[in-house]
Design brief:
Layout: E1 11-27, H1 30-39, H2 42-55, H3 66-73, H4 78-85, H5 95-112, E2 127-143, H6 146-153, H7 158-171, H8 178-187, H9 190-197, H10 206-221
Antiparallel strand pairs: 1-2
Helix pairs in contact: 1-5, 2-5, 3-4, 6-10, 8-9
Length: 222
């Protein structure tokens, strides 16, 4: 087994707790939905594009976001629902640009389908905006090399993996996941960092993502 490089700085694992809060805002039409998407906080956009990942970590990945689900299931606008569901979240480095893409998609659809503005959700089926509030907490786990890193990966909670992969990249606008950043800047292994960066986490369940990260790292150090 090759000798492992020690990190310049250890990797400190964090975890997260989150609660969902109603904003009191709701939409009955596409026009109302669009107006509120422009107005609500980034934490609400994040909630409605990541809720499934947060609540159903072990099930099939890539579910439709809440906006796609509502316009399809409640308003019957299947084409718009498909367009919203096909937005590739991994291509966006922050919530702002993701919000802009959602807005652009709905605006384009309304320009070409003016009758869609006339559809109303039934009472009780309105779109209720919710925001996700996260609390970031340190754990007792620290890794000083890749062997310690992979050993901890095998046992930390999926909430910790979620934070370092999803929240750090998109919601905290760090541009990449925390694992890749540490491996490149502190371990000095750009090849491994790039391999992890290229993963599309939205195509994995969180447990599958854990196993994939473990496999990639172990292949590097054995």
């Amino acid at each position: 087994m090759p000798e492992l490089r020690k990190a310049k700085e250890p990797f400190r694992f964090f975890t997260r707790l989150h609660v969902s809060e109603l904003t009191g805002l709701r939409a009955s039409t596409l026009s109302q939905l669009l107006a509120l998407i422009k107005e609500v906080s980034g934490s609400s956009i994040y909630h409605h594009t990541h809720r499934f990942l947060q609540q159903h970590q072990y099930l099939s990945p890539e579910p439709p976001n809440d906006f796609a689900y509502w316009v399809t299931g409640i308003l019957g606008e299947d084409e718009l629902g498909e367009r919203l569901a096909s937005i590739d979240t991994i291509q966006f480095s922050n919530i702002r640009s993701l919000r802009e893409k959602i807005i652009e998609t709905i605006e384009d659809y309304l320009r070409n389908s003016p009758l869609a503005k006339l559809k109303f959700a039934k009472e009780g089926e309105e779109f209720h905006f919710v925001k996700s509030v996260s609390f970031i907490l340190p754990t007792n786990f620290m890794a000083y090399d890749l062997r310690e890193f992979v050993d901890i990966l095998k046992k930390i909670t999926i909430d910790s993996i979620y934070f370092h992969v999803f929240e750090a990249r998109l919601r905290l606008e760090r541009g990449t996941n925390d694992f890749s950043y540490w491996i490149e800047t502190s371990i000095g292994d750009k090849e491994l960092a790039d391999e992890i960066t290229k993963l599309d986490p939205y195509t994995h369940t969180l447990e599958d993502l854990r196993n994939t990260l473990v496999r990639i790292t172990e292949n590097k150090i054995t």
